[in-house]
Amino acid sequence: MNKSRLLILLAAVVVSLGSLVLTSAYAIHLRSEGYRREVEQDLSGFFQLPCEVGGIRGKTFSSREFQDVVIHLPDRRDQVFACQRAIWHEDLIEGRPTQRLELSNGVLHLGSDRWQHGDYHTVFESGLGHDFAAMKLGRVHLADFKVAFQRQEFVLECGGVVGEVDFQGQEEGTARLEAFELNGMPVREGVSIVARFSLRKGVDVKDVTLELPEVPLSKIGLESALSGEITQGSFAGTVRYTSPKDEDAPEVWLSGKLQDSKLSELSRRLPFGPFEGTLSVRIEEARVAKGMLTDLRGRGEVHDLSFAPFAALLGVARLSGRASFDLNPVDISRGTIHKLEIEGEIEEVSLEEVLRALGKGTATGRAIIRVNHIDIVENAVKSADIELNIVPPAGQPGLVSRTLILDAAERFFDFTWPSSLPQGILPEQLEYVECGVRFMVRDSRLRLMGTHGVDNDTVLTIQIFGQRLGVVKAPATTYDLTPFIERGLSRLRSYDSKRMKEWLRTGGRQPG
Fold first, then answer.
1. Cβ atoms of residues 433 and 468 within 8 Å
2. Confidence of residue 414 (pLDDT cuts 50, 70, 90)
3. Residue pLDDT, tens place only, 157-205
4. Which residues pair with 156 in a beta bridge?
5. CB 307 within 8 A of CB 275
6. Structural domain boundaries of the chain?
7. With helix as H, strand as E and coil as C, how does 33-94 read?
8. β-bridge mates for residue 198, sequence order
9. Residue 197 needs a FRET pair 20 to 30 A away by CA distance; which of 129, 284, 323, 392 works?
């Protein structure tokens, strides 16, 4: 072997041994206990929260793997973040240095019952109050993560989360995540989470959008909030949180579909609840701001709503009757009813039970109300057609007290009993054979019409000594509904969310 070849061989051995020594020294340094403690201190100082790092090892000279990383709340009361594997990469892209982070097999806690007042603010400021643009952090990739939130009345766990947080924009960043498990239930279509944020002076979250495919209502984590098990119904939709510049409070925009849910399961905590029936709602767009529903567009259906729970509200022992309504469309915005159409039916209402509560006389039989349509446009009743019919008990004559007939006739039908005739000439109980009134509205003016008789203008027909007599006719007078509508809207506009929450909390009782 000549000298030149020998020198080349020796040089190669020296370079190889040198690289091996440097690599080994670098790996030993990364795995050392001193370096691990140093990294823990740096992370704790950066986040201003207690941090733990189980181990560190080098992947390459430009990347490091951190194992079993945990971030705690102050005093280590609870975990905020845990990750089995975090890899930090330092790259050179188009001549510019940039960093990226890969996180896998971890969990991000957004809150629990162990969190104290102020913890949410602390976590937000510590984790997001840094100049990420100055760090040259390009992307954060998440794989097999879980996002968890648990409070006394609400549980939400999104598992199998994958996606990226993109910091590459100079002023804005975007997080696009997808979860394939919701509260332990596999979600084949995935739950989409998209967030946009500003990178000026930390992270200022502009909006967060959560899109849910159709899932059983029982998997949304509402059992504690609703005080019981959810067995029926499904939900699919979008929830968007946004912070507009001209508002001092965040807004929540909702859209979606609640299908075939049981009212009895959704209304356990409402005053006088639970209510029986089924509910389906299609929300095209709804806005909630400062604890108030300010805008609503969509449609809804309530079927087989039982009146029994409302007996306590009316002060009676028992109340029968059921109702079904369709509301299509609904368009309400900040105190203005732009459009509202209602159709439905109320049936099997006992007259005896209702009149006992009103104290205006007595009658036997049942009431049937058909709402053919109610059309409200720009806070005015454009048109309405509602028919009320009173039906005698099956196989028995219908009876009505004299005082009730005279009071209703004078109040609503322009009838005055002749002063020359004593009211006592009428029996205390009269037999009615037909009773019905039709409410017709055009441009906020109400007209009362009959439902039977030769000219279809009779409201009440009684029977005396075997003879039928139409004793109450429909009046020619019309009534302006505008003052009543304005009074109702005024009450809605003065709605106090804090008082309503207290009313709901106390089950409809006035706080003492």
1. yes
2. confident
3. 888 888 887 765 556 778 788 989 888 888 888 888 887 766 554 445 5
4. 149
5. no
6. 32-225, 228-306, 309-480
7. HHHHHHHHHHHHHHHCCCEEEEEEEEEECCEEEEEEEEEECHHHCCEEEEEEEEEEEEEEEC
8. 172, 204
9. 284
